[in-house]
Specification:
The chain is α/β, with parallel strands linked by helices. It is built from eleven helices and eight strands. Strand 7 (about 240-245), helix 10 and strand 8 form a beta-alpha-beta unit. The longest helix has 19 residues, at about 300-315. The chain starts with a helix and ends with a helix.
């Protein structure tokens, strides 16, 4: 940490002029943005736009993921001083990264939210930036995938999750955090043959052709074998990564709406994300961080690290 800079830098979310480089303001003070990036609505020249979608409306057990983006931003203030350990490069210096703020929507008009998300993320993509999205419940990933597929074709998907989220749901009016993948495959925006779900530990009678690498298999076979299988499925396809924080065991991330024991340890998730270096990442999200159920902040810290890893993955092939 550059102590001389910390004495003078504050509110970098508003005062910094350059979207590249580290930030040294005190972690406990100042205006909070993700990684102390500057807030920017104009995305000209931006490589990565971090945006929040504070929406949840019907999680299985415990609501509160609407507070996820705020908590993740606060947790991220510990990270922007140095390059992330072990990557060998600094994504915040190599890439122009901004905090694009939260998506606006009418909380009383729930049915309009998916189209609003699709338009919001579509505008980020049209500006030439990669969207890294902070959720929100897992329903937000469906309209994000629609926006990506409209511009890039059917998406290869890597999903970290406790649940496959491919339960049958043919009602177009339903907005459900547990059926986003079913609808994405049925609509043709996700290619199941090139998609894989990691960390699953709940039953589903039909995974629609998606390769399932359950948590027990990750524990048994190890990180390297899991990564080899993921890469074999995805191949050279451009890929989108969605990370439901309940992919982690509740011991590491208790603040989620649908905790399931036996999940990934944080070190396994970190190693798996880092081991994907070189994939052609289109964008990604981290969802279902529900801070009211974790007074320690550990879940938000995990979410902030996942988002940082997604940025580093995006930048790895663009250094």
């Amino acid at each position: 940490m550059a102590l001389e800079d910390a004495k003078n830098e504050v509110d970098q979310a508003f005062t910094r002029k350059d979207p590249r480089g580290p930030s040294f303001e005190n972690a406990f003070g100042g205006a909070t943005s993700f990684l102390r990036r500057c807030y920017a609505k104009d995305l000209a020249g931006v490589d990565v736009a971090v945006t929040g979608i504070p929406f949840d409306q019907a999680v299985t057990h415990r609501p509160g993921a609407r507070f996820g983006p705020r908590a993740i931003r606060e947790a991220s203030t510990l990270q922007p001083y140095d390059p992330p350990y072990g990557w060998g490069y600094d994504p915040l210096s190599a890439l122009a990264v901004v905090d694009h703020g939260d998506m606006a929507f009418d909380y009383a008009n729930v049915r309009a939210v998916p189209a609003r998300i699709e338009a919001h993320v579509g505008a980020i993509l049209d500006a030439g930036a990669a969207p890294i999205t902070l959720g929100g419940d897992h329903s937000i990933t469906l309209p994000i995938l629609r926006a990506v597929a409209a511009r890039r074709g059917p998406v290869a998907l890597i999903q970290f999750d406790a649940h496959s989220d491919s339960w049958a749901d043919d009602d177009p009016d339903r907005i459900d955090h547990g059926t986003f993948l079913y609808k994405a495959i049925r609509e043709g925006v996700v290619d199941p043959v090139a998609s894989v779900s990691v960390g699953i530990r709940t039953e589903n009678p039909d995974t629609l052709g998606v390769t399932i690498l359950d948590a027990a298999g990750v524990h048994r076979d190890g990180v390297d074998a899991t990564l080899a299988r993921v890469r074999a499925v995805v191949g050279e396809r451009p890929v989108y990564i969605t990370f439901d924080i309940d992919a982690l065991d509740p011991a590491f991330a208790p603040g989620t709406g649908t905790p399931v024991w036996g999940g990934l340890a944080s070190w396994q998730a970190a190693a798996l994300l880092r081991g994907l270096a070189g994939v052609d990442l289109i964008g990604g999200d981290v969802v279902e961080v529900s801070p009211p159920y974790d007074t320690t902040g550990a879940t938000a810290i995990a979410g902030a690290h996942v988002a940082m890893e997604l940025i580093a993955l995006y930048g790895w092939t663009r250094r």
